[in-house]
Amino acid sequence: MKPIGIIEPDRLKLIPRDTHAAHEFCFHLHDTMGRILVQMERKRAGDISFNLASEEEARLLQSGIHPLDFLSQTGRSELERRAVVNHVTNALYADMLHFIYEALRALEKRKFTVAFALLRKPLTEGLLVVCQACANEADFFDNLKTNAANLTKKKRFGTDGIQRLIESAVGACRGTECINPETINSLVFDRDNSDGLANLFDKALHLATGAPQLRTENYNINFIFKDPTDDDIYTGSTYQQIATVLLFLNLMQIELYSRMHEPNRQHENWLLFTATATFQTLFSSGRSSMVRFVNQNFKEFLECPTCGSSINLRKAEAPRLFIGETLECRACETVQHFPFGWLLHKLELDLFDRGS
After folding, report:
1. What are phi and psi of 329, to 5 degrees?
2. Which of 44, 156, 194, 272 is the most buried (most CB within 10 A)?
3. What is the pTM of this model?
4. What is the mean pLDDT of each run of 10 residues along the chain (356 residues)?
5. Measured between alpha carbons, how far is residue 143 from residues 18, 115, 156, 300 in Å?
């Protein structure tokens, strides 16, 4: 897979070349979530407004009462919930993105312990909180209001509760066809999965671990003797696993923000397409339905302006088009800018509509 080209090559020189595109995709998901957050804050999409019903309400509000208590006491519980969930969503994503950014930069420098210690908070606790908000907003608000200390306590969900929670969150979002709840649960929370992220997170955070499946070996301390030149972290499925969880967080963010502010459907389709189509082309085997979709629907535009040859998009080149908006003509080897996002806005897509 060719690099996408959104990160300077110098930054990626320490990691294997065949992982550059996957790493860039993870950063693209981070950047997309950051841009959505900034857009929502600029639009003040999380704000709520209401009219006072009486002079008595005006006096109560001016008395110094907390706005949330005012909303609760005046029978505006729906607005109270909306205000709290909006505020928490924005703050939580901002916090998670700080950790994700530093973790991805640490992977570029082969600082494995730092990377996985940083990823643990957003990809476990952050994921758990966002799933609750996305799956059942009313229950999430009640727990946040009366039992916030236990929001991230996995024991309260029971044996299969976390997977059911993830299933509910997946069902609430658009574009989740490539998200498998069982896979997410296994990667992030199942310590019996020796190939998942859970054990990497724990070993990165703790110098010694005693659980059978991640027990620290004698004469060893977790990760501190790991050879930084080893490529095992990069050559396995680690990037696919990280990308899977980041994609899920991105899809839930889009859903949560659509509840704050009426979305532009074309813009939302572009966000969903670039994320899910790139994930499919990077990590799925066989032919890509998204590549076929582009070749069929953009055929009249897929012509090289330099030599006039027709261009047929290939799976290995697709991430550069979807994210970097560049297209290479194989006939004359010219790399052209291609306004993919702009053209995608012109299509009436139903690829991500529920039930389509």
Report:
1. -85, 120
2. 272
3. 0.92
4. 90 95 97 94 84 87 86 86 92 97 97 96 97 95 92 86 96 92 94 89 89 84 86 89 98 94 82 93 88 89 88 90 90 88 77 54
5. 44, 31, 12, 53
